Amino acid sequence: MIMHYVTIEERFTRLRHRMTDDGVDLLVFGPGTYVEWLLGFHPYPDERLSLLLVGRQQAMFVMPALNAADTQERSDLPLVTWTDAQGPAYALQTALAATCTLNAPLCVGLDEAMRTDFALTVLDRLPGANVVMARDVAGTVRMVKDQEEYRLLKENAAIADRAMLHAMATIRPGMTEAEVAEGITSAFVAEGARIKFAIVAAGQNGALPHHHTGAAVLSSGDAIVIDIGARRDGYCSDITRMAVLDHKPQGYADIHAIVEAAVQAALKAARPGVPASSVDRAAREVIEHAGYGQYFVHRTGHGLGMEGHEGPFITETSETILEAGMVFSIEPGIYLPGRFGIRLEEIVFLREDGPEILSCLPRTPSVIATVNPSITHNY
Questions:
Q1: Which pTM does this prediction carry?
Q2: What does pLDDT average to over the chain?
Q3: Is there a domain that residue 192 lies in?
Q4: 58-113: per-residue pLDDT in tens?
Q5: Whole-angstrom distance, CA of residue 44 vs CA of residue 83
Q6: pLDDT digit string, tens, across residues 238-294
Q7: How far is CA 81 from CA 48, 57, 95, 140, 176, in A?
Q8: 3-state secondary structure (DSSP) of residue 54
Q9: Could you tell me if residue 373 is inside a domain?
Q10: Residues 112, 328, 334, CA angle at the centre, nearest 5°?
Q11: What is the per-residue pLDDT across 330-354, written as a single tens digit (0 to 9) for each?
C-alpha cells in the first residue's frame, strides 16, 4: 500500500465524492474533530453558534465575530459573522443559501458530536430535510488514514508504551489504583500528551471492563488491568496490558492464554476486504469454544484516530468492509466476577497483507516481584 500525506484540498475532494455517492447535499459540523481533520484546527467552542457548512461546491463558516480574526489566520474559507447584538439567524441563513439549494429536497449530514441547540437551529431553517449522521459520511472517509496520520498514531503508540512501562516499573503493593493512574498521567504529560483515561483495575475490580479507578489498595497476588490512552498532536493512543503482583491468582494462566489466542485469531482474520464482523467472530469463537463466551461482554474493537473511539467498530453485527489504512483496536477480554479480569489490547494499522501492531510491548503479563525484589518482571 502506497501512502502519502493528504492535503486539505484532497480531504475536501474525498469528502465531496462521498457526499455525491451517498446523495448528501450538505454537511454541518460544529467545532471539533471533523473540522480539525479537514482544516488542521477548530474554532473556539462555546455556546455561540459556530459551524462549518460543507456543500458539494462551497464550504463556509458561520462564525461569532469575536472569533473571526483567529479563524481567518488559519483558513482561507469564507465566513459569515454575527455579533452578540445581531444574533446568528441572518448569518446562518446567508451561509445556507451559499452552500445548498434551499428550495429543493435536501439530505443533510449533522455532526453527531455538536451541541444539540446548534443542530436544532440548523434544522429549524431546513424544514423537511432528510437527516443523516456525519459519521456515516465524513466518518467513513476518516476511517482510512494517510501517511501523516499513521506517523502521528505510531508516535502516540510509542508514548503510551513508555507510560505503560513507567506504570510497570513503579507499581507496588500498598499503592492505590489512583496513585498508579497519577503516575501514568505524569508520564504522558512529560511527553506533551494529554491524558484521555487511565483505567487501573486491581483484583476483582478487573472484572469490570470500565472500572472507575479509585482508592482500592493493590495487594500481593492481584491481577491488574491497566488500560491507558492519551492525545498528542491531534491523535490518540490506547493500550491495555496486564500486571500481576508477586504471583498469579488461581486460574490466571489458563484465562490469559485463552485471551491471547483470541487476539491472535482476530489478528489473523483482519484483512482488507473482509467485514469487520468476521474479526469480532474470530476472537469470540476462541473464547466461546473455551467455555467463557458469557464473560466476553463487549465488542472486539473500535477505530482510533483523532477520537479515542471512532469507526470502524469491530462488532458482531458490523457490515463495514475493512480497507487498507484503517486503524482499530483488537481487545478481547474475559471478566470473571469476584475474581479478576483479563483484557489484552493492540492498536493495528491495516496494511494490504494484514495488520501492523503499533505497540512494541509484549502481551505477556508483567509479573512484578515485590516479595523478592531480585526477581525481574517480564517487561
A1: 0.93
A2: 95
A3: yes
A4: 999 999 999 999 999 999 999 999 999 999 999 999 999 999 988 888 999 999 99
A5: 15
A6: 999 999 999 999 999 999 999 999 999 999 999 999 999 999 999 999 999 999 999
A7: 11, 20, 10, 30, 51
A8: strand
A9: no
A10: 105
A11: 999 999 999 999 999 999 999 999 9
Give the SS3 label for residue 114: coil
Show which of 88, 115, 142 is a domain's final residue. 142
CA dist 111 and 310 (Å) reads 13
Q: What is the dihedral of CA 369, 374, 375, 377, to 10 degrees?
A: 70
Residue located via cell numbers 498532536: 233
156: cell is 502516540
C-alpha cell at position 96: 445556507
Q: Is 379 part of a structural domain of the chain?
A: no
How far apart CA 112 and CA 213 sit, in angstroms, is 29
Range of the domain at 22: 8-142
250 and 317 in a single domain? The answer is: yes
Bridge-based pairing state of the strands 235-236 and 223-232: antiparallel
User: Residue 209 pLDDT > 80, yes or no?
Assistant: yes
